Amino acid sequence: MSALPTLFVSHGSPLLAVDPGRTGPLLTALGRAVPRPREILVISPHWSTPTPRVGNLAQQRTIHDFGGFPRELYALEYPAAGAPALAERTVKMLRDAGLPATTDDQWGLDHGAWVPLRYLYPDADVPVTQLSLQRHARPETQYRLGQRLAPLAQEGTLIIASGSFTHNLHEVFRAPSEDLAEAPYLAEFVAWFTEHLAAMDLDALFDYRARAPYAERAHPTDEHLLPLYIALGAADNAARQTHFDTGATYGALRMDAFAFGNAAPSLADVTALAQ
């Protein structure tokens, strides 16, 4: 079996679940363009633990881990089956690499997981489990973790890293309007990051906070970008990349997505499916 691609998707605000904008159709098309997975392992910045934990529920539960949003959001469910066998396999793989990983029978799917999954696999018909993020670990450490997960993609597991390509909530809260024009500084950050990503300049990418223009403004804290490094490390050929640019929401949240690996669908194929 050829390895599945790995994905990084931006989930933005929880309101994406009811207001798809440009991102929802793109994610739906991306889900259709990727070879159908046997199961899904998703990483979200909204479940952070000191050491890796993998959910092992037989039936997923939808976590509404946000407040102050319209009531309709709290009624949404993503009733996918869990993937306990995948959880056990992932834990063994990480333990074999020397990491103190454990399974977890409490966590379900937080909004960083279920909101994009509602578009990628709207029928909730692919078993899924979630891997926690170690938010204080450096980008290089996240990349190495991804490398340890790479065999899963060879076995038919789709690794989805969910976050946000930029994520300055201070600016969003100052002027919370989805119609805000994109902040001008984002273009410089995105251009730098995508250029070094395409060149696989890992030294620069690992040190992006010191080298990228406006890095600390784009990511006052970097937990929403760290999952990208996991997807990059888990790809069978990270130099083979497709970048999906869906702009920004609320002026400061870039909603870009990436597919990495030899089986990454092309921009033309996904764009055609999104129309």
TrEMBL record:
Keywords carried by this UniProt record: Dioxygenase, Metal-binding, Oxidoreductase, Zinc
Top-level division of the source organism's lineage: Bacteria
InterPro entries for the chain: Extradiol_dOase_DODA (IPR014436), Xdiol_dOase_suB (IPR004183)
Molecular function GO terms recorded: ferrous iron binding; oxidoreductase activity, acting on single donors with incorporation of molecular oxygen, incorporation of two atoms of oxygen; zinc ion binding
Extradiol ring-cleavage dioxygenase class III enzyme subunit B domain location: 27-238
Record CDD domains: 45_DOPA_Dioxygenase (cd07363)
Co-factor(s): Zn(2+)
Family membership noted in the UniProt record: Belongs to the DODA-type extradiol aromatic ring-opening dioxygenase family.
Protein name (database record): Aromatic ring-opening dioxygenase LigB
Organism whose genome encodes this protein: Pandoraea terrigena
